[in-house]
Amino acid sequence: MLSFGIVDDDAVSRLMLHKIIEKGGLGEVVGTAGSGSEGERVLLETSPDVVVIDLLMPDQDGIETIIRLKEQGFQGKYVMISQIENKEMIGKAYQAGVEYYIQKPINKIEVEAVLSKVNEQWKISRSLKEIQDSLTKLSLLNLSPDSTRKKRSVREIVQPILMDMGIVGESGSRDVTDIIEHLTKHHRGDGIPPLKELYETAARTHKLQEADVEKEGKAAEQRIRRAVMAALAHIASIGLTDYSNPKFEHYAPLYFEFQDVRMKMKEIDENLKSEKSKINIKKFLQVLYLEVTDKMRSEQ
């Protein structure tokens, strides 16, 4: 279970967040503070997994507190809460290490949704770390003058990329991973097979009767489409708050069409109803395949 720290100069907000976290089964609150300087002390003492912190506080604001905590080696994740809508300030918060932003006044549904995502990402990160730790221990046990560093599997390379794009928890991410695994084993060259063939490749990982493959392939197509759409929305939202964010600079031009990113940013910025966007799924899969194979070659 995740542990949380809450730093907010508003006692009512602290109480509301405390109740939402613990009554919603999101985790355990191990420390609270009413100011940045007090929060710095409390968080270093309690070492929570996640810090929910207000942006504006009188003695030491949220950004300054995060910077000071990082300087002292604090490793937790940060979720910022504030009434401020200034994009420059929000951009600075993301640069300081904030992963999510919650707008005040506090909304129970929004808080639960954001913290559930944080919880999900934390579990995945922990699983990946456990895998990496296990591989490190194995390599140390088998260490010899002729030993070489164990190469990462395709899945271990793909997961952090999907995590950066905010879709590692999407059901379609499994289909995407299955397709990339298949391509790295059975395909050569920069181009990739037709999408229908790839969707049916993902379907066959479920060990279906051949008669059911086409139907499951169509279901895989929808799952992948939703996952790629979610990735586009996630990257667009990052670019909207911080155009120079490294994740936005890397993934936006590489994985998506420029006009699709701009349209999604406009939808988010102007709170427009989401249109049925056209997305280039083949480009997304082809770029992911090339990035994975490039990383695999660099580790040889």
Written description of the protein model:
With 300 residues, the protein is α/β, with parallel strands linked by helices. It folds into 2 domains: 3-120, Rossmann fold (3-Layer(aba) Sandwich), CATH 3.40.50.2300; 151-298, no CATH class. The chain is 62% helix and 9% strand. It is built from 12 helices and 5 strands. The chain has helices spanning 11-23, 36-46, 62-71, 87-96, 108-141, 154-164, 171-186, 195-204, 210-241, 246-255, 258-269, 281-298, and strands at 3-7, 28-33, 50-54, 77-82, 98-103. It has a 5-stranded parallel beta sheet with strand order 2-1-3-4-5, with helices on both faces. Strand 1, helix 1 and strand 2 (28-33) form a beta-alpha-beta unit. Helix 7 packs across helix 8. The protein is globular, with a radius of gyration of 22 Å. The modification 4-aspartylphosphate is found at residue 54. This is Response regulator. Residues 3-119 form the Response regulatory domain. It holds the Pfam family Response_reg. Keywords: Phosphoprotein.
Characteristic terms for this protein:
single chain; 300 residues; alpha/beta; Rossmann fold; 2 domains; five-stranded parallel sheet; 12 helices; 5 strands; Sig_transdc_resp-reg_receiver; CheY-like_superfamily; phosphoprotein
Number of domains: 2
Q: State which percent range the strand residues make up.
A: 5-15%
Shape: globular
Intertermini distance = 38 Å
